[in-house]
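#struct-queue
[09:14] JT: dropping the first one here, sequence first, then the structure tokens:
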Amino acid sequence: MRFAAGAAADWLNSPAGRVATVGAMKLGLVIFPTDRGIQPVELAREAEARGFDSLWFPEHSHIPSSRRTPWGGREGGLKLATGITLVAQRDPLWLAKEVATLDQLSGGRFLFGIGYGWNHEEMAGHGVDIKRRRKVVREKILACKRLWTEEEASFAGEYVNFEASWAWPKPVQFPHPPIVVGASATELHFRHIIEYGDAWMPIEGRFPVAEGWAALTRQATESGRDPASLQLGVFGARPDSARLAELRDTGASWVALGLPPLDRDAALATLDRYAPLVEEFNR
């Protein structure tokens, strides 16, 4: 089977959806929000003022979409991202509408980071068989794509089924926000990324990024997808200039630096310590 560049090509060629130009690497932030840490609205404002490119919110504590909604409509270049959304635990009809709404509120600056999940108890509580979660995620993302791109959409799968449905609004980014897959470096995960993803986002320190990226681009070529239609991002990287340069040279388009869930003063002091790296890489 050959895969058209599709969403990835549109994303790469669109100023609204572009994460970084070829040969460049942008720095963003990832933080687990808590009710005791700096508030997301202020963090977004301060991160953007220091030149950060994106702000990522994980799940398991607070719901990432709810942390973005109050400030998603502000003018500016900061990209808003889930890092990651637990797709298997979501209703695809609701998820498609939620993602499209966030893309509208952010002015086309939303990055849809997704993952398969790992928490057995959490998945069981949502009625998800952890052994089948990858298949469930695949079908739900394919269903979302239909809802984003077709006026009247339907889907018939093993885990997702719905008849003629209409989902509005549609996303600002055409045909939808970039789908960034957070996953380990395996042939199965790469097959999924090649089929329905726009980028791979491994966690720094858990997997050999350079080797994994080489394997993904090779597998994409063998599958008939242009590897240039895929991007590499790295999650939770250390604020180390030499390591960031290595990731840039590997081909990373963006890196999300880890920011602990600190109170306001400590968080802003950490942003100030990161600022020289932003000056170095976000050019």
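[09:21] JT: and here's the second one, same format:
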Amino acid sequence: MDWIPSSNVEKRRTRGPTVNRILDQVPFGGRLEVTWRNRRAVGESSKLFKSACTALVRQTREIPLQVKSWKSIPIDIKKKAFERILKRFKVEDHMRWVLEQIHRSYHSYRRYLKRLWYDTCGTIEEARQNIPPSVAEDDWQYLTDLWSSPEWKAWSKKNKENGFKENNLIHTCGSKSFSQIYEEERKKTGNDPGRIRLWELTHLRSDGKAAHPAAEEALSKLKALYAEVSAGNLHMTEDEIYEKVFGPERLQRERGITSKELWGELRKQLDESKQRQEESEQRCVAEVQGLKEQLGRVEGLFSEQMNRFEGLLVQLASQVSSPVQTERPTVNPPSQRVKYESDTTISVS
């Protein structure tokens, strides 16, 4: 078992637990707006939002530690965690993004526990006794058993090797997300920063110099390509220059910042907008076709009525043109009139 001797590891002084006193100053029932960019909280309330997720994970103990990973946590527990965040922030339509932030806070918390309270011990027995103040004893025993298992060690070793290959460019933006850096630069300049500008903001020091050799090498390549483009010897777009230096984008690749992370949401919105437009056009075509069919039926009925009307006009015209014979009233003959008068006289007497 490979252990780091505790005598060679010095515990650094760290900040205390997150209590989020600023959020507690918000009036009861008041909720803060959260701005989103590429599935991440940005803007004025982003820090309070992330702190609330961290406090939820570390202090409420509503999210269990006795699971192998975040995926193993039941969905009903995750929904309850979302409801707690919903009481303080207006995030009704972003449950998935909120849970992603809680997931990041949960993963960070477990890494913190392992780094400060497990990796600093010389033996597994010592680690079992080194229980963090904020963790229950049964939770800690589960975690120490998990981290010392052969399966976990093999999985962790593989991830470290992959991480070393993929993340040879370490960012310099601290706890801020790339999305937050992007938003701050956009507000500062009024323009959306490009991929190379964002890489400079997240991988160079404030004086514009590289923080480590890998970044220095990448920066030199970028400057050389820009010089060629400025001199007219090379015709390349910013994205082409970026991919020339950092290589084509790959799945789960995190060297610098990828267009999938920062521009993927915009591309998704454009695709959805295009799909909605196509569906709208299809509905319009169907409606126009329906109106044409309806107009055809109306024209047929109108033609039929006109034919009948013309027939009636022909009949009426023929009746008007033929002579009309009228019968004259007949006058009773004198003999009948005399008889009638005599009958009347007899009837009276």
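[09:30] RK: nice, looked through the second one.
[09:31] RK: Confidence is low (pLDDT under 50) at residues 1-12, 251-259, 337-342, 344-349.
[09:31] JT: good to know. The chain is about 60% helix and 5% strand.
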